[in-house]
C-alpha cells in the first residue's frame, strides 16, 4: 500500500536547471513540490504506527461535533509530505527539525500540494545544511499549513524522481 501511495504522488520540481546533461543543484529560491490525496487507508495505517486514534479522524459524527465538516486527515500526516520531498530528491538526507502552523483542516479525498523552498543553504564539512520554507495547499490555493524545516543534505544535486 505504501509503495502504491508513493508511486501515485506527483513530484513537480521548480528548479532553475537549463541543461539536461548537467546535474541540477539546489539553490536558494528553488522549490520542490509534491501532490497527494489522502484516503481512508492512509489514516488507518498512520493511526497504527502513531497510536493516534482520535475519533475526529475516523468518525464523521465526532468530527462534526468538534466543529469540522467531516473526518480529518491527521495534521502531522499532511506535514510528513515535506520529509518525503526531501528524501526522494536527496537520498541520505537527515531531517533536523520542522515547525508547523496548522491553518485549515484537511479532509479525506482532498488533493494537497506540498512545497519546500530553499531559503538558506550553508556548507558544513562535506554536507549542506538547508533551511526550508514549507507550505501545503488544498484546492490549489488554500493554505493548510506553513512553517520551516532544516535538513542536512549529503549533496546539492537534486535527484530526479522516477515514477
Automatic annotation (TrEMBL):
Gene3D superfamilies tied to this protein: Hotdog Thioesterase
Q: What Pfam families does the record point to? A: MaoC_dehydratas
Q: Which GO terms describe its cellular component?
A: mitochondrion
The family database entries (InterPro entries) matched by this protein are listed as: HotDog_dom_sf, MaoC-like_dom, UPF0336/Enoyl-CoA_hydratase
Which Gene Ontology molecular-function terms are recorded? (3R)-hydroxyacyl-[acyl-carrier-protein] dehydratase activity
GO biological processes: fatty acid biosynthetic process
**Taking every annotated instance into account, which residue ranges of this chain make up the domain MaoC-like?**
33-126
Originating species: Morus notabilis
Q: What is this protein called?
A: (R)-specific enoyl-CoA hydratase
Amino acid at each position: 500500500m505504501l509503495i502504491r501511495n508513493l508511486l501515485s504522488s506527483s513530484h513537480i520540481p521548480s528548479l532553475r536547471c537549463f541543461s539536461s546533461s548537467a546535474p541540477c543543484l539546489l539553490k536558494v529560491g528553488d522549490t520542490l513540490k509534491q501532490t497527494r490525496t489522502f484516503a481512508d487507508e492512509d489514516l488507518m495505517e498512520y493511526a497504527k504506527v502513531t497510536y493516534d486514534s482520535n475519533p475526529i479522524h475516523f468518525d464523521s459524527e465526532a468530527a462534526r461535533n468538534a466543529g469540522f465538516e467531516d473526518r480529518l486527515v491527521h495534521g502531522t500526516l499532511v506535514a510528513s509530505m515535506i520529509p518525503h520531498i526531501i528524501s526522494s530528491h536527496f537520498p541520505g538526507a537527515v531531517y533536523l527539525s520542522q515547525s508547523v502552523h496548522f491553518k485549515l483542516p484537511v479532509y479525506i479525498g482532498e488533493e494537497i500540494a506540498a512545497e519546500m523552498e530553499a531559503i538558506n543553504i550553508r556548507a558544513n564539512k562535506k554536507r549542506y545544511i538547508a533551511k526550508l520554507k514549507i507550505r501545503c495547499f488544498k484546492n490549489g490555493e488554500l493554505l493548510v499549513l506553513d512553517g520551516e524545516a532544516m535538513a542536512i543534505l549529503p549533496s546539492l544535486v537534486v535527484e530526479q524522481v522516477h515514477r
